[in-house]
Design goal:
The chain has about 280 residues and is an all-alpha fold. It has one domain. It has 15 helices and no strands.
Length: about 280
Amino acid sequence: MIEFVWETLQLLPFLFATYLVLEAVEAHAGGALERFLERARSVGPAAGALAGAIPQCGVSAAAASLYAGGVITAGTLLAVLLSTSDELLPVLVSQRVPAGLVAKIAGLKVAAALAVGFLANGVLAFMRHRRRDVSVGELCAHSRCGCVSRRGIFVPALIHTLEIFAFIVVVSGAIELCMHWFGEDSLNALCLNKPFLGEVVAGAIGLVPNCAVSVAGAKLYMAGAMSPGALMASSFTGSGLGLLVLFRTNRDFRENLAVLASLYVVGVLLGLLTGPLL
């Protein structure tokens, strides 16, 4: 429980910096910052795949908020979510897993996330579908925080940060208690070392927005109770708190479900493809 509190507190700098960016975009609409962000969208998946590789779930949470604010594309968001490893890599390192294997897992995740991100952007462009630009004002109206009337960017950013942080604490705390109650033994009984079935089940488990899932996955893999493919599937779908923040900040529920479904299907397929490479 102490680890959960510390990991949740680590989100604060990421969330606050994210909402500062969103408030700055709103304050300088039509200015140089907005034009720069528009041009940066073309290389967004590459930056997202690399940023997601940082072993910190705050990156995915920040990406979800930026997507809800219309700053990054769906491809960039998927790249971040797919490359996010949560606590998997640090746990593997702590278990003295060969450095070559850890590097291979990280490399496969980044490469796959980059490819999927650019592919998603290309498909959406072909379909002539673009992300609707959502202003911070609309985000404020959605959260009913009343910060639109305030001057400056620091106070509104702080309000949004605390609001999202409180939501994460409540939901993640409930999940943490469930994980503590059922323990790793329940995961061990889910046939995670069976071909195909293991990837399908592990992909679903990875969607649970809690660091304990990735920690348990690493331990089960080391104990031989989880196949390499299942480990990769859970790692690809395990996006930290990104999905949780996405469903809280993005108003389009169907869009959120599409991201969730895409992450799961792609994660399972990538698990099946990359597992034999480990």
